[in-house]
Amino acid sequence: KNKKKNLKKKKKKKKQVKATGVGSEVEIRPTDLDATKARFRYAEFHSQMYHSLQLIQKKFPFHFINAEGAMEEVKKSIEMELAYQSKAELADTTFDNVRRIPLAGEIKKDARLQLVQRLDTYEKNHKSLFDQVIATIIREKRKRKALFKKIGQAIIRTENPIFFREEGLALRMVLDLLSERGYRVVLDYLKDKHPEKVDPSTGVISFSIRKVLVFHVSFPPPKIRHATAESVDGWDVHIV
């Protein structure tokens, strides 16, 4: 129906141009006259172009414009879309300034590459310390195995001197190893004061400083459901 209406408008416009000599003739395409050809054109667009345009749309938001209406309506739709696009884009000077901050995706890509390089360096140049750190992680994990399994989280406090060796190299190894194996790690570095002695004459207390590392280690816990109760007072109850 829309096709016939559009064709009628094109023919009318063509007659007006011929009669008045004003304006330009609107081309009547074969697909305007033949429904089979029109369907073929749409099928070609849908199979070859539409999917690609949808992929582009994820990066550059835009809308498809229906070009079957009157010329003025289509023109207005295009102008509105262009106005929308210009409002959604940063000015050139703003973009040049903002782009100095790297995209999150770029950071992730670079971080993975650097992580692999560091782990290979540990294995090649610091083999003995690297093996000790791995053994320490395995030992600590075994102590908290049940907790890890159930909730996917553990808080590990340690004063192990190995982590303070070689200017914190062992500590960096721990963080890289856990990251490589899929754990999320947050590290707190604490300094605990412990009283050692009191001067009887002055009452001054002498303290020793103990360095404590607190690892907050987590990963998505498994979904293990042993039983399910239908409902209790309107609440769905899951026994985990």
UniProtKB/TrEMBL annotation:
Bias kind Basic residues: ranges: 1-17
Example GO molecular function: kinase activity
Organism: Reticulomyxa filosa
Region annotation (Disordered) ranges: 1-21
InterPro entries tied to this protein: P-loop_NTPase
Keywords (A to Z) from UniProt: Kinase, Transferase
Protein name per its UniProtKB record: Adenylate kinase
Repeat recorded as keyword: no
Keyword Transcription regulation carried by entry: no
